[in-house]
Amino acid sequence: MHPKFVIVDRQKGFMPSCNLSWENWFECCITLKGPVVDGLIEFWSHFWGRKETLAPFHHSTSHIPDTLNQSSSTLDTILLPSPHHSSLSLSIPPLIPTVTPRRPPPTPLNTFLLSIVKAAKYSIKIISPNLTCQAIIIALQAALARCVDVTIITNRRMMLLEQIVTAATTTEYEIWKLKRAYCRLLRRRSRTVHAGNDEDAAMMEEGQQHEVLGKLKICYFRAGSSAGDNEPMRSHVKCTIVDDEVAVLGSGNMDRASWYTSQELGIACFGTDTVRSIGEILLKGLEGRLEEYFG
User: Fold this and answer.
1) What does the pLDDT look like over 187-242, one tens digit per residue?
2) Least crowded by CB within 10 Å, which of 184, 189, 220, 295?
3) Is 77 exposed, middle or buried (0-12, 13-18, 19+ CB in 10 A)?
4) Model confidence over 109-123: pLDDT tens digits?
């Protein structure tokens, strides 16, 4: 069980990225009013009421909190549940998962995220604590090949044991592989011969890669220079923004556990002004807390 939401008086909903725990992490929260709260209530009822079916897509209009938009307005939203699946098979030695190259369960959240990434026209921005789900990594590679710019913000060394047990890999290794695949693709597309084995040598003169591939930018979260007791040590935000037209927030990470086994809950928000505001607010909070790894 991994969703995070709070319902107050059946009239207001909160969907934070944080747990009720001691970790001092960088988090975000969206406040919801209107019919979408009914969807949260329905989701809660289906899970805790032990009903057999999961709440369906709940399309509605929700209120934008004042912190997101100074004017009173509404936006279209879709609630995206993702039920628990027991899909982790164990092999010898014990606790080492056998990761098979198969599609993730077709939950509303998984299906929606893959759909918008595959349909992206010019930009994909992802903030996720970890990145170990092969399905989304393959989709990002395909997007780059379509000349879609991809920005990824994630963490180093976050919950390493959990990553190894659930995915048999780590975020840093998958990021390194993504960078390597990107440089190789760029080298093939540019039809330029490079000497040596340094993958970074595949990068052409500044700006040239935009002619053949989308731009890949990868940043790792780090504590700010004025780190104190209240300075977050890791980023726990889960946000995907595509073409500045749709943003998905909620509990789901871009790791194998969230995509294949955990129960999750996300919400898609539509509207260029709102989506851009979400991105701007998150980037403002990340100022001075990013280490550029690539791009």
Assistant:
1) 888 764 344 445 544 554 444 444 579 999 999 999 887 666 788 899 999 999 99
2) 184
3) buried
4) 999 999 999 999 999
Backbone CA torsion sign across 256, 258, 262, 263: negative
One-letter amino acid identity for 3? P
Q: Half-sphere exposure of 285 toward its Cβ, with a 13 Å CA cutoff?
A: 18
Q: Is the peptide bond before 93 cis (omega within 30 degrees of 0)?
A: yes
Can you tell me the mean pLDDT for 92-103?
Answer: 50
Compute φ and ψ for 74, nearest 5 degrees: -130, 165
| pTM exceeds 0.85, yes or no | no
Residues near 212 by beta carbon (within 8 Å), at least 6 away in sequence: 147, 186, 189, 190
Name the residue with tokens 């004017």.
71
User: 3-state SS of the chain?
Assistant: CCCCCEEECCCEEEEECCCCCCCCEECCEEEEECCHHHHHHHHHHHHHCCCCCCCCCEEEEEECCCCCCCCCCEEEEEEEEECCCCCCCEECCCCEECCCCCCCCCCHHHHHHHHHHHHCCCEEEEECCCECCHHHHHHHHHHHHCCCEEEEEECCCCCHHHHHHHHCCCHHHHHHHHHHHHHHHHHHHHCCCCCCCCHHHHCCCCCHHHHCCCCEEEEEECCCCCCCCCCCCEECCCEEEECCCEEEEECCCECHHHHHCCCEEEEEEECHHHHHHHHHHHHHHCCCCEEEEEC
Q: How far apart are CA 99 and CA 167, in angstroms?
A: 7
